[in-house]
């Protein structure tokens, strides 16, 4: 709580700003007092505060502070420093400050660990943290090692505990839940050859080494739930069991997992269902179950008024559901027909059919057309299920369609479609990690350091997700990148006046003043 207090000294009245706050270290209420100026009354009784003017002896430094203040405010609100210190073993300096400094660095500059200490000292963060700790490279690397390191012949994953406690913190603070979670995998190019996680990518034409990153986020605000490294060549579907086991061990149960078609495989579907998880997935077109379900309705049966849904302004889809089995798991199929895609694919198919039937088409071109049409390479329709499902008639029946599958048989077609395509948010999460959080390139070589580095990125991405959540709650329509770019232009100047160090802000614009109020950082920054 902040209020003003007037103190009389003889005939003069001086005004102060008093801020009450709770000191977590001393576990007691405290107050911060800031002098505002002398109160002067005019002849008509109006009063004004005359600010004290300083004579500037020298400018010590200037620094951008708005973006850092916003990140620090969220870290303080979620008590991230206390969480890190409570989860990680301590060896010398506490790990909370170095880990948070590394997370802020990811969002602000992405300096190497050799330069982070100097950057930290050049910001207001030592004062915000109330510390005189010097972040040497050894201290920063030691903090990373406190997140993941080898102990007693194995690997101790303290960073996983940090992630788990952070999930509970954002649930308590913002009331978000984990009833529906999104899971996806991305791969990062790795420059080097001395890491067991770095493997030649399965889909990499150049043969470069990659490290996989698996990420689970919440549905509504895309808050991070779990972030793990995986070997670069491991199939996405082989990672599902590990993720299910991790969520189960963390007590995150009775949850719907939403995944794309690359995650689908016979063992992992059954395993997740046995653990009690509901699944909502895109169906792979390499499955006989998928191909049969996609073509079970004719265009006339699909394109009825009762099956039409509005996706957005002047964009409509047809959806129709039926119960069935996918890879031995019982559930509900939802066939989605996009009439625009149907028209494009049908026209293209008709054109190729016309060329195929032309007497001017040579044998080599006929083979190319049959391959493009999708009728070659699957064996005879009489002896192969895949060949049976890749006749021209059945391929045409699947034009413009894709298939969803849910283990919840009572799910509505509209909900299945809406929830599944909200998974695009996790792709935005990966873009945020790669762009705003600057996750790439990977500079670490030790596997444990890479895992610790991903926990740092987990924290950095959390700060971005919370900022996005707060802006949306306050009705802000500006993009997060735009907001943080302008916040980064709020500048603090440190100067000497009569031998005393003082700080002030470069006069912020009206837009920046509004931004400071929106982000809740006005009280952290010096007055102008």
What's the quick description here?
The protein has 528 residues and is α+β, with helices and mostly antiparallel strands. It contains 20 helices and 19 strands.
**Ends distance:** 21 Å
Helix-strand makeup class: alpha+beta
Mean pLDDT: 86
Low-confidence stretches: none
Describe what this molecule looks like in 3D.
The chain has helices at residues 66-77, 80-87, 96-108, 113-121, 125-129, 137-147, 158-174, 240-249, 266-274, 288-294, 299-302, 339-356, 363-373, 385-388, 392-397, 413-421, 424-434, 447-473, 480-487, 510-519, and strands at 2-9, 12-23, 28-41, 47-50, 58-64, 148-151, 154-157, 180-189, 199-200, 209-218, 224-231, 256-259, 278-282, 308-312, 315-326, 329-337, 401-406, 491-497, 500-505. The protein is an alpha+beta fold and 528 residues long. Strands 8, 9, 10, 11, 12, 13, 14, 15, 16 and 17 form a ten-stranded mixed beta sheet that branches. A four-stranded antiparallel beta sheet has the order 1-2-3-4, with no helix packed on it. 32% of the residues are buried.
Topology:
Layout: E1 2-9, E2 12-23, E3 28-41, E4 47-50, E5 58-64, H1 66-77, H2 80-87, H3 96-108, H4 113-121, H5 125-129, H6 137-147, E6 148-151, E7 154-157, H7 158-174, E8 180-189, E9 199-200, E10 209-218, E11 224-231, H8 240-249, E12 256-259, H9 266-274, E13 278-282, H10 288-294, H11 299-302, E14 308-312, E15 315-326, E16 329-337, H12 339-356, H13 363-373, H14 385-388, H15 392-397, E17 401-406, H16 413-421, H17 424-434, H18 447-473, H19 480-487, E18 491-497, E19 500-505, H20 510-519
Helix pairs in contact: 1-18, 2-3, 2-7, 3-6, 3-18, 6-18, 7-18, 12-13
């Amino acid at each position: 709580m902040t209020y003003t207090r007037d103190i009389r000294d003889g005939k003069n009245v001086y005004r102060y700003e008093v801020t009450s706050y709770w000191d977590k270290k001393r576990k007691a209420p405290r107050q911060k007092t800031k002098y505002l100026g002398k109160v002067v009354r005019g002849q008509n009784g109006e009063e004004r505060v005359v600010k004290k003017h300083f004579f500037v002896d020298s400018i010590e430094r200037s620094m951008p502070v708005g973006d850092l203040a916003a990140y620090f405010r969220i870290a303080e609100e979620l008590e991230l420093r206390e969480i890190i210190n409570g989860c990680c073993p301590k060896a010398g300096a506490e790990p909370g400050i170095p880990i948070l400094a590394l997370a802020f660095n990811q969002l602000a500059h992405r300096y190497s660990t050799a330069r982070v200490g100097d950057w930290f000292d050049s910001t207001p963060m030592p004062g915000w943290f109330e510390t005189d700790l010097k972040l040497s490279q050894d201290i920063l690397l030691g903090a990373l090692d406190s997140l993941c390191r080898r102990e007693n012949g194995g690997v101790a994953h303290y960073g996983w505990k940090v992630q788990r406690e952070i999930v509970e913190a954002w649930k308590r603070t913002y009331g978000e839940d984990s009833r529906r979670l999104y899971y996806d995998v991305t791969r990062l190019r790795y420059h080097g050859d001395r890491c067991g996680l770095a493997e030649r990518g399965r889909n990499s034409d150049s043969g470069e080494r990659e490290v996989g990153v698996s990420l689970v986020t919440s549905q509504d605000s895309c808050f991070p739930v779990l972030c793990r490294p995986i070997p670069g060549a491991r199939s996405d579907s082989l990672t599902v069991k590990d993720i299910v086991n991790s969520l189960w061990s963390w007590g995150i149960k009775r949850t719907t997992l939403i995944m794309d078609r690359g995650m689908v495989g016979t063992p992992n579907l059954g395993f997740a269902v046995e653990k009690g998880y509901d699944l909502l997935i895109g169906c792979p077109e390499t499955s006989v179950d998928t191909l049969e379900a996609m073509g079970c309705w004719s265009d006339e049966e699909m394109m009825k008024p009762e099956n039409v849904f509005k996706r957005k302004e002047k964009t409509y889809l047809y959806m129709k559901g039926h119960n069935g089995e996918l890879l031995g798991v019982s559930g509900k199929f939802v066939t989605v027909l996009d009439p625009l895609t149907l028209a494009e694919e049908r026209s293209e198919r008709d054109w190729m059919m016309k060329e195929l039937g032309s007497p001017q088409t040579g044998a080599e071109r006929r083979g190319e057309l049959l391959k493009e049409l999708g009728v070659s390479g699957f064996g005879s329709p009489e002896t192969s299920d895949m060949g049976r499902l890749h006749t021209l008639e059945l391929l045409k029946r699947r034009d413009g369609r894709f298939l969803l599958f849910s283990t919840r048989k009572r799910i509505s077609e509209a909900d299945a479609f809406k929830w599944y395509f909200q998974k695009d948010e996790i792709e935005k999460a990966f873009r945020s990690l790669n762009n705003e959080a600057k996750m790439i390139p990977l500079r670490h070589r030790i596997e444990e350091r890479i895992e610790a580095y991903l926990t740092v990125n987990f924290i950095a991405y959390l700060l971005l997700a919370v900022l996005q959540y707060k802006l949306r709650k306050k009705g802000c329509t500006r993009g997060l990148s735009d907001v943080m770019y302008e916040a980064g232009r709020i500048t603090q100047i440190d100067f000497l006046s009569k031998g005393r160090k003082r700080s002030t802000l470069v006069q912020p614009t009206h837009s920046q003043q509004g931004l400071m109020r929106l982000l809740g950082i006005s009280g952290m920054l010096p007055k102008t």
